[in-house]
Amino acid sequence: MVPGSAEGKGIRCPHCGITNLEGVSVCRSCHQPLSEESVTRFASKICPHCGFDRNPLIAKFCMKCGAEISDTEEIFPAEPPAALMLPTRREIPVSVPETIVGRKDFLEDMPPEKVKFVSREHLKIVCEGGEYFIIDERSTNGTKLNGVEIKGKGMKRLKDNDKIVLANTVDQTFQMK
Question: pTM score, two decimals?
Fold first, then answer.
């Protein structure tokens, strides 16, 4: 079991969804403070129209699309519905409606000489209508989806167990939960 993985003990950041090692006080991704109080305080509703998952529990309307949210809408799930699985078996959670993946996401699992080819904001995974898409518009060294280069080619649909390679160095698998 990898420390800080979804399988091991850790604390999920209520701001960005990244799993951090147990005992840390600041998120390694978004640098927001982590505490049991903040995890509880930032529980939120999911918009049934656009999937935005950071609406406050008291919200009557979605902060992203403005659609009405009833008091019975789903509360933010404990586990994101999808993740990127690294060869080390650590998961990078994919949050709704979008997740940006970059160099910082791989620093604890891979040597710097391998990660240095991954851009700071390498790709984006977007959820629209319950389907996931991958976009690489700004990386320096490209992204392959199931062996096909996708840089600059717009949104490409993701399916369970698709293979994603960043900068010809970092392998990962997209997984639906």
Answer: 0.58
